[in-house]
Amino acid sequence: MVIQMSRLVINSLKSVSVLWLSAFVIMLCPAENKASVFTEPSAYEASEAGPSEASGEEALKGEGTLSQGHESSLWNPSYAEAFRGGLQALQLKGLDEAEIIELVAPLFQQDQKDSGILASVSMAQFILESGYGQSELAQNANNLFGMKADLSGNNWEGSAWDGTSVYTKQTGEFAGRGYITVTADFRLYQDIAQSIADHSSYLLTSKSGDRFRYAGLEGCLDYKVAAQIIKNGGYATSPTYVSDLCAVIERWDLTRFDL
């Protein structure tokens, strides 16, 4: 009896030792399937409005793909190159609206120095058109303004886009009496700053015939006038576009960022 009890005690001690050893090993070794901070979402729902192409359109739910052809549910190697640049829209995920505004404000201020377009106006467009950088195009292509690869002949000089990198997704476009679903290529940018610069170069140099579409925008110091210039140039067809922009500017006091 004594021998049997001794064996039970020894076996129990061995089991406890194995459990403690296993726990120690687990603590030292990271799980192989630990999620990366930068993995892409596998499904998206967004609304983007691009210059002249927007016409008040609403993007449809769907999965987009990068020009490299990787599945959207996996980390894409192209982002490794992108992260060597500046601020990424992916870095805005999880932040509240006020934090996002403070984080991106210096980029829009630098753009005002370069382009002469009020930082407050461009920031309001960013907020309206990308949902504070949370839209599908923003998160996956750093595309803050719904800029398509081909903007229906609205060509301009000095584009910051590399001319080749695209993000393909389904979107809704107005045709005749209603919206239809189409697959379109949108510009993929290295970082947020590149998207802002390309958008501003579009506003400054795009033409309709021999006329600059947004003449008078550069150097305009009144955000209400600037918003009307953008609307009059055909940027958006929504009858409330100007008031929507101004409401965002006033809500967040974005004029404090104007230079």
Give the key terms:
259 residues; mainly alpha; Lysozyme; 3-stranded antiparallel sheet; two-stranded antiparallel sheet; 8 helices; globular
Number of domains: 1
The oligomeric state is single chain
Instruction: Please mark out the parts with pLDDT under 50 across 5 or more consecutive residues, or reply none.
Output: 1-5, 13-50, 52-63, 68-84
Q: Record the strand order, biggest sheet.
A: 1-2-3
What do we call the CATH topology?
Answer: Lysozyme
Number of continuous helical runs: 8
Mean pLDDT: 74
Named at the architecture level, the CATH assignment is Orthogonal Bundle
**Sheet with most strands:** 3 strands, antiparallel
In brief:
This protein has 259 residues and is mainly alpha-helical. The protein is built from eight helices and five strands.
Descriptive report:
With 259 residues, the chain is mainly α. 41% of the residues lie in helices and 10% in strands. The protein contains 8 helices and 5 strands. The strands form 2 sheets. A 3-stranded antiparallel beta sheet has the order 1-2-3. The radius of gyration is 25 Å and the shape is globular. Residues 1-5, 13-50, 52-63 and 68-84 have low confidence and may be disordered.
